[in-house]
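hey
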């Protein structure tokens, strides 16, 4: 999926941790303080998970809460009989991808795709500029691959930003995330914007038939190739999950009178977990990130764990230590003051520095930020990276475990994707260790994350195929249901 490409990740396997860190007293005192603030104990993991379960439950009712638990209207996973050719559009943070997926049934597919760079300026431009760009890319792809122009093509749109979904073919943006900030889209339905743009650019043979979140695509695509997968999680630029719920467990939809055991994929949209600030151990760096964010007060959980923010947490800690006279004394830290100066791949590179004297870290800090360090300072910096990365993995585990506890499962297969999961050193091991701490060995070791199939491409095509079979509910189908 596209989030994989958000950063230039180092490709090496991680090295082991450096020898026991020997630091002078001042550095040691500061590191001890950070250790204390960033360490999430088993007890705290359990408390966060407990609160998470109650928020997941609340989100399924009409009571207001932090986690919206969005019904996706996808009421079945593929059964292997799905076939046909579908277009998929994946609007990620960095790239726009258009795919044509030939779904061949029984877990098989063929995929052809074009990737287009998403110009940075579009993320804060106007809504017509954004949708015209998307529609132009779709048209280019269709003109190249279907020059005859007379075939009607159906497209599934993977739009991985928090949305309300009144039906499979409608999505209303709740709030922009991942660095986007475009006026006139929040609170609005994105489908007419997309359709109007298709018309404007003269792309008349494409019809949108499904809008989905990347987690939904990940679950459906993973379930297609690994039947039994019941949750989809993204640990990437953003972090979110979906899972299969029973209709009778979703009180807010009871008016539709669907059968009690009818499955429905629920997109948790859990980035807003703990916006009430009850349980997450926020540090002054988390508070500062929130205060400087275009949406302060929102996305509390995501701001502590997602790839979009981990680099910024490190940057703020380094600046703070500098201001206290601990690091980079007498040096020019201007480059570090740029809010976009550090992305998560920096932590990743520092964590895998193979040299005892952390020479690669030295090169990185010098070449990118013009900063020199002593060896012990670099050891402190590496430990700070480990603290940030470990906290992210452990808190991420709470959401997954909350799904296990909410659904009373004894095991869970999780289709998993995202740059942090796929590339961040030790993330998977740290995550799985936390599963066992929270749920106990017996169940925790049966929560299995597996790298997903391409959810934003293959998943979108499969959801389109399900829609064509009436297993992803359109507004027309839903209108025909009696709503109390
Ligand atoms: C953000 C978005 C969510 C998406 C996740 C992973 O949390 O709100 O919709 O699934 O990132 O990409």
């Amino acid at each position: 999926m596209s989030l994989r490409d958000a950063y230039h990740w180092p490709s090496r396997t991680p090295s082991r941790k450096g020898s026991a860190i020997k630091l002078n007293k001042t550095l040691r005192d500061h590191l001890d303080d950070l250790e204390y603030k960033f360490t999430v104990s088993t007890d705290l993991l359990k408390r966060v998970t407990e609160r998470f379960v109650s928020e997941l439950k609340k989100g399924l009712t009409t009571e207001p809460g932090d986690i919206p638990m969005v019904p996706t209207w996808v009421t079945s996973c593929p059964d292997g009989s799905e076939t046909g050719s579908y277009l998929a559009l994946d609007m990620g943070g960095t790239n726009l991808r258009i795919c044509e997926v030939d779904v061949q049934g029984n877990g098989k597919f063929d995929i052809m795709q074009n990737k287009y760079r998403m110009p940075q300026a579009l993320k804060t431009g106007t809504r017509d500029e954004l949708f015209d760009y998307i529609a132009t890319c779709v048209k280019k792809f269709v003109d190249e691959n279907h020059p005859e122009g007379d075939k009607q093509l159906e497209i599934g749109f993977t739009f991985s930003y928090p949305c309300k979904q009144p039906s499979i073919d409608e999505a209303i943006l709740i709030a922009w995330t991942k660095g986007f900030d475009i006026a006139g889209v929040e609170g609005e339905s994105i489908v007419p914007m997309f359709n109007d743009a298709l018309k404007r650019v003269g792309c008349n043979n494409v019809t949108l038939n499904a809008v989905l979140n990347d987690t939904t695509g990940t679950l459906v695509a993973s379930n297609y190739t690994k039947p039994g997968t019941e949750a989809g999680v993204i640990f990437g630029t953003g972090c979110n999950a979906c899972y299969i719920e029973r209709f009778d467990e979703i009180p807010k939809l009871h008016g539709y009178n669907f059968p009690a055991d009818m499955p429905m994929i629920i997109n948790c949209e859990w980035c807003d977990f703990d916006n009430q600030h009850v349980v997450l151990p926020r540090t002054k760096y988390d508070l500062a990130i929130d205060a400087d964010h275009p949406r302060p007060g929102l996305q509390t959980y995501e701001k502590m764990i997602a790839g979009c923010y981990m680099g910024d947490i490190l940057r703020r800690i380094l600046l703070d230590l500098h201001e206290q006279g601990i690091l980079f004394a007498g040096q020019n830290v201007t480059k570090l003051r740029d809010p976009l100066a550090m992305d998560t791949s920096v932590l990743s590179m520092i964590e895998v520095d193979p040299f005892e004297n952390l020479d690669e870290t030295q090169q990185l800090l010098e070449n990118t930020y013009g900063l020199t360090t002593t060896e012990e300072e670099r050891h402190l910096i590496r430990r700070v990276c480990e603290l940030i990365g470990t906290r992210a993995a452990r808190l991420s585990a709470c959401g997954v475990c909350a799904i296990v506890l909410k659904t009373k499962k004894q095991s869970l297969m999780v289709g998993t994707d995202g740059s942090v999961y796929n590339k961040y050193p030790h993330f998977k091991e740290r995550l799985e260790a936390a599963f066992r701490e929270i749920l106990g060995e017996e169940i925790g070791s049966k929560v299995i994350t597996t790298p997903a199939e391409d959810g934003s491409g293959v998943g979108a095509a499969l959801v389109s195929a399900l829609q064509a079979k009436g297993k992803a509910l359109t507004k027309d189908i839903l209108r025909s249901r009696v709503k109390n």
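Residues 127 and 182 are 6 Å apart (CA to CA). Confidence is low (pLDDT under 50) at residues 1-19.
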